[in-house]
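EI: anyone free to look at a 306-residue chain?
SC: sure, send it
EI:
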Amino acid sequence: MSADTTTVAITKSGASLFLDFVGSGPRRPCLILYSGGDAGMPFDLEPGTYVMGRAPECRLHLDNPGISRRHAELQVTESTVTIVDLGSSNGTFVNETRVAAPLQLKGGDMVRLGVVVLRFYESQSLEAALHDRIYRTATVDPGTEVFNRRYLFDTLKREMRLAREQQRALSVLCYDLDHFKSVNDRWGHAAGDVVLRDSAAVVRNTLRGHGVLGRLGGEEFAAVLPHTELPMAADIAEHVRAAVADYVFAVGLQGGVPVQHRQTISIGVAAIGPDTLEPADLLAAADRQLYASKNGGRNRVSVDRR
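SC: here you go
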């Protein structure tokens, strides 16, 4: 073996990832989304100009209420990528330093547009893919493909700080699956895994653009809703409840016949207030309302209106 030969150990599950990034052709710069329900999504950057924001016409569209409609601009050439803030409300930051003038990005830079976080790579490379795989392993719950408890608490802590600094709204919702034990008891744990995973996907899709969903543990989940007043959060929670109740879960076969299951959830909603000191306080307020929903008959939304 020659001195400059590199040996890479890669699992079978990662083989396709490796093949996707090792090949002929030019290597373009890319951004990888590091926040929200679409974390891990890559944005390949061909030469040109990219306006980033939540307006549908933006070339790099980020559907999140925490950023401006036209938030920032990327100017991409064959050799450089420059970022320019477009007078956004919540600011454009590179490595947590606010961008006040056009700034050339370097490989590995963390870019934050308000609450949306991305990482810049100078070329779409195996390194970018592996970094993303490591990041997702650390932040995503493998059983449901939503964020894990640690990431959710980090997000809530950051959003509470921003809500106080900028005097803006912040709500959370907590929910769990009603009578979930009966799913495992009746059809087995594989069926329970399907219901957990698919219900999380239904909720994530319903929340898209509104908040960050994470699994607290077992069959209990929570979502952080930045820029969301309590009445709007209650409306969102009702849409989430109805979406799960309307979904038909395919949980396996029984005697060669597909088994279908209907699942409901109970939800509690709370918003930040003057007496909310810690992230755990806000989650506890929503959790109390979750148990009010369960005690009130389940499959309903209860709201903390103190």
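EI: Residues 71 and 80 are 20 Å apart (CA to CA).
SC: 👍
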